[in-house]
Fold this sequence. Notes:
By secondary structure, this protein is of the alpha/beta class. Helix content is 39%, strand content 12%. A hairpin with a 5-residue loop joins strand 10 and strand 11 (448-455).
Amino acid sequence: MHQATLLQAKDGLKQKKFSSQELTEAVFKRIDAVEDKVQAFVHLTRESAMQEAKEADKKIAAGEDAPLLGIPLALKDLICTEGARTTCASKILDQFVSPYDATVVKQLKAAGAVIVGKTNMDEFAMGSSNENSWHHPTLNPWALNRVPGGSSGGSAAAVAAEECIASLGSDTGGSIRQPASFCGITGMKPTYGRVSRFGLVAFASSLDQIGPMTKTVEDAALLMNVIGGKDPLDSTSADVALPDFMLALKNQVKGLKMGIAKEYFTSGIAPEVAKSVEAAIKTLESLGMEKVEVSLPHTEYAVATYYILACAEASTNLSRYDGVRYGYRSESSDNLKDMYLNTRSEGFGEEVKRRIILGTFVLSSGYYDAYYLKGQKVRTLIKQDFEAAYKQCDLIVAPTSPLPAFQLGEKMDDPLQMYLADIYTISANLAGIPAMSIPCGFTGDNLPIGLQLMGRHFDEETLLTVGHHFQQATDFHKNFASL
């Protein structure tokens, strides 16, 4: 049962092949069997999950229906969940219990979902490997000596290890897509504003976006139907009509133009990744899509621009963790100033401190114009690159990551190399466009490789259409790690 996709689980429950309680128990049994190897979760919510499953069974018996009724899902540990710990994988929030549900959690609960637990992540979503978690690193189910990617590494590993039917992650610079690529699953970053951020603990408010991490594109479409839409509690959520994403799966891909940007196929890409992505492009051509060469000339500035803007926003957003109202408070302080200093020094990890310092520097008097303001201008140029490209094509096809999953500890001493691992994903966040990673191959060492699809603003439908047709023509998404 734990191997089911969302749609298979939905069908099984509807046909009464199994109950929600049996399905949830099967998922917890799987967690008990493999969690000590993978370490995808920070904490489990067994008691409340079994209660939710019991309620779901009553509704099913009464003939009620809802999109996710009785299906066990997991949440990244920066999505506020009432009555459950929400730690952002940080010491500073280790004992914080959220007093309310994030909007997406309310939507999941209204759709009947069963929440089995909170997944591990890089602290405050800052990292590309899940090694920055205060709790423990998560391991890649395909190779336990490798990283699952970050920052939503726990969510990706939980789906890949079949410890939940699907999960939610968040994506600020590739944090859904890169782990989806490393773990061989489907991961979508919706358009900025498509999904409410209310109750998502902020890293960089103009970049963060919640999205689905699933076994198939169909499952991603089903989750998008549930979590998308305007939210009056989030002023950045867009008042744009929410289509039925499941209907998009029936659209045809024949005649669609896919843009191939030369900037994404440079010397930095691993040969096996390039080979798999090129083979995937040929598969899409065989389905009737047309290849068009496009250019995104400002791609080379994306990493620098991102780390200036994201760190500036992080510096502001993380100033609220001061030991006064909630979270960790240092006990070794004689006065207020020392309490602030000691609390933040002891409570934050190295990477978070690094980004706060970087962000505070670029916002400081004398450097604001040179860095932050210039960063905003380059961000506009990157957005304009995509707008120009979409005049020639319907979506852009690229690798998700230049490399497959790297080894634990390999990049921890070299932050710059770690930052460069996000080179192909960052631009979509800066431009605010939707993007998705789907499995498209394996290396000789049997490590998954991801194909990235990037679309126009609020055109998740085209990405889902193309991704679904690709999965109908290939079997990469049907492979799971043998733990």
